[in-house]
Amino acid sequence: MKSFPNLLVVDDNPISLSFLEIVLKKLDINLIAATSGFEALEKIKGLELALAILDVQMPEMNGFELAVKLNEERKTDRVPIIFITANHINEIDVSQGYNCGAVDYIFKPVNRNFIISKVKVFLDLFISKQIIIDKSEQLEKKTEELNRLNVALKKNEEKYRSYIDNAPDGVFVTDETGRFLEVNKAACLISGYSNNELLTKSFLDLLPEESHNKWTVHLQNVVITHCDTVEVLLCHKSGEERWCSIETVKLSEIRYLGFVKDITLRKLSEDLLKESETNLATAQRIAHLGSWHWESKTNKIKLSKELFSIFDISEEFFDGKAESILKVLHPEDLDPTLNRINASITNNDESLAFEYRIIRKDNSIRYLFGEVKSEFDEFGNLENIFGIIQDISERKLAEQALKISEEKYRTIINASPDGILLIDLKGIITEVSEIGLEIFGIRKRNDIVGKCFHQFVPSEERNIIKDIYEKAMNEGLAQNIGIKLRKKNQSIFNAETSSTLIQEPDGTPLSFMVIIRDISQRKKIEAKQLHADRMANIGEMASGIAHEINQPLNIISMVVDRILFDGAKNETISFEFLKNKSDKIFDNITRIKNIIDHIRAFSRNDNKYVATAFDINSSIENAISMIQEQFKHLGIKLSLKLDKSIPGIVGSTYKLEQVIVNLLTNAKDALMEKKKIQPDCEEMIVEIETYSENEFLVVELTDNGIGIDKDDLSNVMLPFYTSKDVGKGTGLGLSICYQIVTEMGGTIDITSNKNIGTKIKLSIDIQENERG
Q1: Which residues partner with 452 through β-bridges?
Q2: What is the bridge-based pairing of β-strands 492-503 and 180-183?
Q3: How many CA atoms lie within 13 A of 677 on its CB side?
Q4: How many other CB atoms are there within 10 angstroms of residue 450's CB atom?
Q5: Number of helical (H) and strand (E) elements in the chain, helices listed first
Q6: What's the pLDDT tens digit per position in 6-28?
Q7: Which residues make Cβ contacts (< 8 Å) with residue 477, sequence separation at least 6?
Q8: Non-local CB neighbours of 7 within 8 Å, separated by 6+ positions
Q9: What is d(CA 515, CA 432) in angstroms, rounded to the nearest whole number?
Q10: What's the confidence (pLDDT) of residue 732?
């Protein structure tokens, strides 16, 4: 509803007051009439006055006193006052009136046209003042809105840039030499090589020779700045060369994270972004706000200097005609704009606001927001039109760029072959990819977005999630951590997760990006591989086991023969003699039972074992007991240097025994291969040593066998890789050893020299093992 300015009229004479009401009600005002000063003060509480007309002579409170009351609490924007009097006033009264806020005097009897004319002057001044204030406030609000949109665009671009920089598409991890340590499916698709093939190569293997120097400079920049992007030719396995953009981030002194993209997939978005930035830069060089004024008397339009800049027209040659302005309007917006203005004038609307476009001389399109204020005379005839125009191109471009950015990055996230969750610092899921929905068995996004991630984590696994968050917060990245998660239907599945910390430009943590891969099927296959490998080891140890059992059986047989012999020789046998021989029998029966129990425990599928503390030296001795007969038979010397002061570790003693048996079996094969090639070689020796080193528990196994070729050294722990002859190895041994030791919080390092020997070093982080 339209509001009118408030006008106060106070006169103690009812006739005079009625006359003034009749005269002034023709104006567009909110008239407040009172017969005394006290009544007037009561009626205007909380109201803003445009003008006050006060009778000078009134009982109890005269006009001068009322004028003081009206303005005594107004430090600025004092109420203009017209005094009405029936008496001639002297200079003292006039001075007193002006001191009280008077702007004019009217003498009774009042002339109708005279008072209307005077009141309209002050009302026009008040309305003009309000228009200026309103426009100033509107301009301030629109400026704030533009700033807010620019900030929002900047934050979204930076946030989604973080997402794309850490997205799983085309991700690779290399060491300081460029050798691949980890790659994902997208990196394989871009290069054309399989995962296993890529892990045997370095980045230089994928680049033509002319790009090697460029890649070296790129890595040097990464070392200095911790992040750098380079565009190079990449050699596809098929022989085709592709231009790719590679961004590399330094994670540590020996680890580099990067992602690779085919440039053609992002060129379109880059060009759009550059065009957007160019347009924004151009917009910042021109004025954002201008005004214009049309007078009916002259039929001319006057433009502010800012408007000449916005329209890109010459101030010198402007003829003041409306047609000159209409020429710059976009053809599609010309008729709608004119129709709006004409309809507003026809309906006597005082204000109108709308958006439209113009085309400048350089053919660039600008988006404008216009407000029009029309003034009519008392007969309804149009007198003036005032207009304010704001260039809102920045906001429009920002809105368009924001929309394109959100759609682009959502598409990239949904294209990932793994599930992706965005989780805020409070653990609330804010975004999920399509694959993420499938992994958790969820159809609707609302069933997971807005929920706490702990809702999908079994209680016994929540400490792992806490560790993942802490590692990502401290190091920026937590990779390939096994965990059990819960689907919507409450079923539990095995998952592998990686978490990346998303940060503001100033380094403030913003959220986590969690990548989830369902590895339930892989776990089943690995469990079968573990069991099959264990059974294969038992088969190889069969002769040794038979010897171990045969020895106590021979002793039992000899003891029984002695009892029978003495019984036949002597009619009576002493109790002490019988007890002594019986104890030997039972000792050896117990020995057989222990051997069988140990073999049974070693061979069983213990996927559901409960991790317990055990002595690593005892595990090594148990493993040796199952294989030492083979070593004796083959002439292999086994040397032990076991530190009895080392601490225990947590895990499965049988799994560690399997690691030791595997390593001993490999050492035996290496020694026999060397013996076959060099029959007169030195004695065959295998040494096992345990000791503590800083915070690590170390097991070293050394042999003087045939050694490992340099080409094979980086591949020996890959599944199904073997350098043995066909039928003599599955390629699972060291792969399984690596998996078991990793589960215990350890690492495996292999050093080898051809024809000299091999050293395998197991290092178990004691603190990490205790947390696991």
Answers
A1: 428
A2: unpaired
A3: 11
A4: 10
A5: 24, 27
A6: 888 888 888 888 888 888 887 88
A7: 251, 257, 471, 498, 499, 500, 501
A8: 24, 27, 29, 30, 31, 32, 49, 50, 51, 52, 53, 119, 123
A9: 10
A10: 43
Helix (H, G, I), strand (E, B) or coil at 554: helix
Region of 718 on the Ramachandran plot (φ > 0 left; ψ -120 to 50 alpha; else beta): beta
- Highest mean pLDDT pick, 136-140, 270-274, 412-416, 623-627: 623-627
Give the whole-angstrom CA distance, residue 97 versus residue 65: 10
Q: What's the pLDDT at 593? A: 67
- List the Cα angle 331/336/340 in 5-degree steps: 145
Give the Cα separation of 403 and 398 in Å (integer): 9
Distance of CA 390 to the CA centre of its chain: 36
User: How many other C-beta atoms are found inside a 10 Å radius of the C-beta of residue 274?
Assistant: 10
Cis peptide before 109 (omega within 30 of 0): yes
Please state, in angstroms and as integers, the Cα–Cα distance from residue 222 to each residue in 182, 213, 250, 712, following that order.
Answer: 19, 14, 6, 30
- pLDDT, tens only, 312-366: 888 877 888 878 788 888 888 888 888 887 887 777 666 678 888 888 888 888 8
Q: How far apart are CA 377 and CA 381, in angstroms?
A: 5
Q: Cα(670)–Cα(654) distance, rounded to whole angstroms?
A: 24
Q: Characterise 547 by phi-psi region: left (phi > 0), alpha (psi -120 to 50), beta (else).
A: alpha
Compute, in degrees rounded to 10, the torsion defined by CA atoms 117, 119, 124, 125.
Answer: 120
Residue 673 token pair: 């291969």
Rounded Cα distance between 329 and 551, Å, is 106
- As beta bridge partners, residue 260 has 246
Distances (CA, A) of 116 to 104, 122, 148, 213: 13, 10, 47, 88
Question: Cα–Cα distances in Å, from 732 out to 91, 702, 710, 736?
Answer: 116, 20, 20, 6
Q: Are 738 and 764 in contact (CB under 8 A)?
A: no
**pLDDT tens digits, 426-468:** 889 888 888 888 888 888 888 888 888 888 888 888 888 888 8
Which pair of structure tokens corresponds to residue 642? 């076991």
